[in-house]
Amino acid sequence: MMQNPQILAALQERLDGLVETPTGYIESLPRGVKRRVNALKNLQAKCAQIEAKFYEEVHDIERKYAVEDEISEELKEKAKIEDEKKDEEKEDPKGIPEFWLTVFKNADVLSDMVQEHDEPILKHLKDIKVKFSDAGQMRSEPDDSDPFSFNGPEIMGCTGCQIDWKKGKNVTLKTIKKQQKHKGRGTVHTVTKTASNDSFFNFFAPLEVPESGDLDDVAEAILAVDFEIGHFLRERIIPRSVLYFAGEAIDDDDDDYDEEDEEADEEGEEEGDEENDPDYDPKKDQNPAECQQQ
Q1: Phi, psi of 168 (to 5 degrees)
Q2: DSSP H or E segment with residue 174
Q3: Which residues form a coiled coil (predicted)?
Q4: What pairs with residue 192 in β-bridges?
Q5: Which pLDDT value is given to residue 290?
Q6: Number of alpha carbons in the 13 Å side-chain half-sphere of residue 273
Q7: Are 114 and 105 in contact (CB under 8 A)?
Q8: Which helix (DSSP H) or strand (DSSP E) does residue 194 occupy?
Q9: CB neighbour list of residue 75: distance below 8 Å, 6 or more residues apart
Q10: Could you report how far apart the first and last alpha carbons of the chain are, in Å?
Q11: For 164, how many CA atoms within 13 A lie in the half-sphere containing its CB?
């Protein structure tokens, strides 16, 4: 629920409203009390600075101890060598064909993004890796003008990957042909236009955030979704790719529904057992008070 962009936006609006609450009450306090309030504010500002430093150090630790990639590479290389030794038939395919395409199609978050024209490309995808970069595009310091509104590190920008498509192979664009008739001459000619096309690869071309940081609701929603997808790839898809490939990965949301379904099934089974019992007498279950009223 807390990952829903609309809920987060509403919560942020509520918090902003609290921050901007008029300070008339504070101004009406005695001078000694106001000094104590200001002292608490200074402590709050120091806490915000400590929190900012905490997030910076956490990011550095993640980069320093990102050993999962190294272990994963060793396992892949070992598996590759063992497979090559065991493979006696030349007709056997190398590796696992269409591994990442199958992973994407088995993940609910990504399956809707993958279009039919994306599949021939994703079939040739060999590997996906996570690499930690410096925090150059992340602001983790409170704003000097308003240090009390600091809510943690803020991503200031993201850079997509420029894909050098071969001519006629760009699946993020589609060609539209329309016939137009000249009003005076009556002749008909064909006009060709290029328009954007739904594709998984649109993920690599994020919206550009202006320096002012002002975005409309649609742009904010798109950026929020892009962030969620990137986070999902890093936290779930890459470390558990084989589970998604095998169809054995279970999302957290699905766990809740499964538990509810199991509880409902158990209740239904208990009721069904009573009804199927040959010695079961429904009259014995009636409330004595209800029997007297009847």
Answers
A1: 80, 5
A2: strand 173-181
A3: 33-92
A4: 177
A5: 45
A6: 6
A7: yes
A8: strand 188-196
A9: none
A10: 49
A11: 0
Which of these, 158, 234, 251, 161, lies nearest to 200 by C-alpha position?
Answer: 161
**pLDDT cut 90: percent of the chain above it:** 10
Token couple for 140 = 């983790």
Tokens of 210: 């202006």
Measure the CA–CA gap between 292 and 286, rounded to whole angstroms.
Answer: 10
The amino acid at 256? D
Cα–Cα dist 171/169, whole Å: 6
Tell me the C-alpha distance between 69 and 7, whole Å.
Answer: 34
> Residue 60 phi/psi, 5° resolution?
-65, -40
For 35-60, the pLDDT digits (tens) are 887 887 777 778 778 888 888 888 88
Strand partners, 175: 194
- CA dist., res. 66 & res. 130, Å (int): 9
What is the C-alpha separation between 233 and 253, in angstroms, rounded? 17
Partner residues linked to 195 by β-bridges: 174
Residue in the structure block whose two tokens are 């279950």: 285
Residue 69: both structure tokens together: 């990639």
Tokens of residue 253, six digits: 């949301």
Alpha carbon distance 273, 280 (integer Å): 9
